[in-house]
Amino acid sequence: EDYPFLHPNGKTLYFSSKGHNSMGGYDVFKTTYDDATQTWSKPENLEFPVNSPDDDILFVTDSLEKTAFFSTGRYSPYGKIDVLKINTERRPMNSAVIKGTVVKEEASQSLKSKITVKNMENGEIVGSFQAQDNGDYNLELPNGGKFLFTVETPGIPTQSDAVNVPVAYTLKPYKQMISYDNKILKITNYFDGKVDDENYAMMIDFIEKKAKLEVNETEPYNNNLLNNKNTSNNGNDNLNSVSTNNPTAQSNDSNSTKTNTNKNVTNDQLLEIAKTDAKEASEEAAKLKQEAQDAFGLATQKTAESVAKQKEADDALANANSITDVAKKNEELAKANQLKEDANIATSVANTATNLAKKLEVDASIQQKEADLTNQYISQLEAVTKNKNNKEALAKLDAIQKELDGISKQKNQSDELFTSLKAESELKQQELANTQKKNTTITNEINAIKNETQTLEKDLANENDKSIKENISAQIRELNNEIDLKNKELNTNNQKINSLQNEVDGVNQELLVAAKILNESTDGINVKNNNNRSEEH
After folding, report:
1. In the structure, what pLDDT confidence band is assigned to residue 457 with cuts at 50, 70 and 90?
2. Cβ contacts of 82 within 8 Å, gap of 6 or more
3. 130: helix, coil or strand?
4. What's the confidence (pLDDT) of residue 351?
5. Residue 124, C-beta contacts closer than 8 angstroms, at least 6 positions apart
6. Could you tell me which residue, 363 or 246, shows the higher pLDDT?
7. What is the pLDDT of residue 482?
8. Per-residue pLDDT for 339 more than 80?
9. What is the reported pLDDT for 493?
10. Is the peptide bond before 49 cis (omega within 30 degrees of 0)?
């Protein structure tokens, strides 16, 4: 233990240590003295952003413990340190980190699940995360909020579940487990667990990035372009083999044996393939741009519809307030509420259409970039075809290949949005089905209590003993009170069903709009028509 600082209150001690769950090097710790037990508390790691994987020492606070100074090597050249002044008041972090594990239900089950996370407040996709071969995965999410986790596991239907992530005020990696019960997704959260050494070790990369340390986050790129210095020796006019994703070349590195996996492809055929790819990418870009325009147009239409519905709702509400007849007043109020709900749904659909349009524009831009790069590839390949020793053209081919490889790994944002909407629809429908099932359970309980009450009423009519009659009457009153409570519970549940039904209709309308814009199947998507009758597309 080094670099101690005893606060003027005489009870708070700050010091630096390489033990006690240190993140790496020296970390600053805090301990307080208990007069009653005459002992010091267990050292508490001040965590990120005070501590980092580098040395953090000489922590000194003011008398109110609101401002502190300390030394750190995180920004400094080797052998030097900086002195930082910080505000020590506790504030939420920008990100929350989840360390999770996928667990097998059966021995043959794959653990390489893909987890797509959607922010349920704004509908944005936070990111897609891939579990490792052993099932481990790490998620970096916005700090606090409600998220929709969509899990894709090979051999198991894609399913979703909602996860409420609490706000983190300290560097605490949350734990999570993804499992299946009869192929039904189960997400178990351990957000209140203690932080152990293993979890701190897992956080090092995350801390380094947040602390702006000089770390190399780039991985060696696998060069797929064959260096053809000895191409003429193989007596083959083919310069390179053809990639399955892009009109580019494949090879092993310079130390390996040069092979051609498509020896029957001539240079002319390779050029034709590249031209076809460029044309298809350009056509796909144009198609996506048109879909984006359609989505923007629909968003404008739905916004106007929302404004009109809201005006109708306001008029109906004003009319209801002027009606004295209770029945007619309630009828007009119900109409106003439904119009208001329709306006909200139209607004949600407009927002989804706008979001989809923006993502389609991004997808179109990526497709157009692929077309442009492929055309550049064609030009360089033609140059290499004319002169096999054209090193400049070969170098450019290599660079273009890398860019095309990067593009081929990107997924369409519009497709991910559609998948997310489908998952959200399924989640809402399941929640609605569970709530409707609860209604049946409550109704059965009410009927059972009523039957019991009727039996007691018959016993009461046939009983002459006064004390027994009083006892039976008390039981009947208690059962009637229970029936009243159950009816209130039933009424509350019915209100929840109506609310969920509106949510399902809203999500399904969003899904239907997205499906039509993206030319996806609309089978099984149930929405309400203007007469509030359910329609299945």
Report:
1. very high
2. 71, 72, 73, 74, 75, 76
3. strand
4. 87
5. 118, 355
6. 363
7. 92
8. yes
9. 92
10. yes
Amino acid at 502: N
How many Cβ atoms from other residues are within 10 Å of residue 366's Cβ? 19
Say if CB 58 and CB 4 are below 8 A apart.
no
What is the rounded average pLDDT of the residues 147-166?
Answer: 90
Q: Which residues of 29-64 are buried (b: 16+ CB within 10 A; e: fewer)?
A: bbbeeeeeeeeeeebebbbbbbbbbbbbbbbebeee
- Residue 440: C-alpha distances to residues 462, 490, 534 (Å): 34, 9, 21
d(CA 237, CA 247): 17
User: What confidence tier does 266 reach under pLDDT thresholds 50, 70, 90?
Assistant: low
Alpha-carbon distances, residue 163 vs 96, 178, 187, 192, 498 (angstroms): 13, 12, 8, 14, 23
**Phi, psi of 298, rounded to the nearest 5 degrees:** -65, -35
Closest-CA residue to 404 (of 225, 213, 256, 265)? 225
First to last CA, the chain: 70
- Could you tell me if 18 and 6 are in contact, meaning their C-beta atoms sit under 8 angstroms apart? no
Residues 5/13, Cβ–Cβ less than 8 Å: yes
d(CA 395, CA 404): 14
Tokens of 367: 């497709």
Whether the CB-CB separation of 396 and 384 falls below 8 Å is answered with no
Tokens representing 341 are 């709900």
Residue type (1 letter), 304: A
The single residue listed with the structure tokens 């916005």 is: 142
Q: What is the 3-state secondary structure (H, E, C) of 54-78?
A: CCEEEEEECCCCCEEEEEECCCCCC
Helix (H, G, I), strand (E, B) or coil at 79: coil
Rounded CA separation 87/62 (Å): 10
Q: What is the pLDDT of residue 248?
A: 39
The residue behind tokens 């340190």 is 81
Is residue 146 within 8 Å of 121, Cβ to Cβ?
Answer: yes
In this structure, the strands spanning 56-61 and 44-45 are unpaired
462 alpha-carbon distance from chain centroid: 65
Place of tokens 């498509």: 262
